[in-house]
Amino acid sequence: MVTGRYHVTTFGCQMNAHDSGRIEGLLESLGYLPAPKRDEADLILFNTCSIREAADSRFVAHLMEARAVKRRRPETVIGVGGCWAQSMKDEIFADYPFVDVAFGPGQAGKLAEFLASDSIGAQGYFEFESFTADLPMKAGQGHHAWVQISVGCNCRCSYCIVPTTRGREVSRSLDELTGEIQDLAARGVVEVTLLGQNVNAWGRDLRPQRSSFSELLSCVDSVEGIERVRYTSPHPKDMREDVIEAHASLPSVCEHIHLPLQSGSSRILKRMRRTYDRSRYMDRVAMIRERVPDCAITTDIIVGFPGETDEDFAETLEVAEEVGFDGAFTFIFSPRRGTEAAEMSDAFVDHDVARKRMDRLLEVVRRRGSERAQRFLGRDLEVMVEGTSREDPARLRGRTRHNRNVYFDGIGAPGDLVEVSITGATSQSLTGEMALAAAAQRLSR
Ligand code: SAH
Ligand code: SF4
Ligand code: F3S
Question: Which of 263, 331, 336 has most ligand 1 atoms within 8 Å of its beta carbon, as the pocket-test mutant?
Answer without folding.
Answer: 331
